[in-house]
Write a structure and sequence with these properties.
With about 120 residues, the chain is mainly α. It has helices at about 1-5, 20-25, 30-40, 55-60, 65-70, 80-90, 95-110, 115-119.
């Protein structure tokens, strides 16, 4: 991806929908490009004009591995973003994705680290 090699700013939001490059690629289902963009460490918590962060678009596509990666990168799951992502996955028929997202959120953000270490 030549823009990344040229050190383009991947965090710029367009004027119309306030989408970043990461949100655009998630919206239109470009899984591989998203992986490359995430390697550039973009700001993953920016929101579109709909109030969606990248996690919500990924959940709609049913990309369970991408959800795991975003959660490990500390994508915002607060302010109902995590619940909205799960609901969007269910609405699109991606029940397995919704289940995995819920488990990832619980495991990485809800269970205290000392409890995990003892199991």
């Amino acid at each position: 991806m030549w823009l990344l090699r040229a050190h383009a700013n991947v965090n710029i939001q367009n004027n119309k929908d306030r989408d970043t490059a990461l949100i655009l690629w998630a919206k239109y289902g470009h899984y591989r490009i998203m992986h490359r963009l995430l390697d550039a460490e973009p700001l993953i918590n920016k929101k579109s004009s709909l109030g969606y962060n990248v996690l919500m678009y990924v959940a709609q596509h049913g990309w369970t591995k991408m959800i795991s990666r975003l959660i490990l990168m500390n994508v915002d799951i607060n302010n109902n973003d995590g619940i909205r992502a799960i609901n969007l996955a269910i609405e699109k028929g991606n029940k397995e994705t919704a289940h995995r997202a819920l488990n990832e959120i619980l495991e990485n953000h809800m269970i205290p680290r000392d409890v995990k270490a003892n199991n």
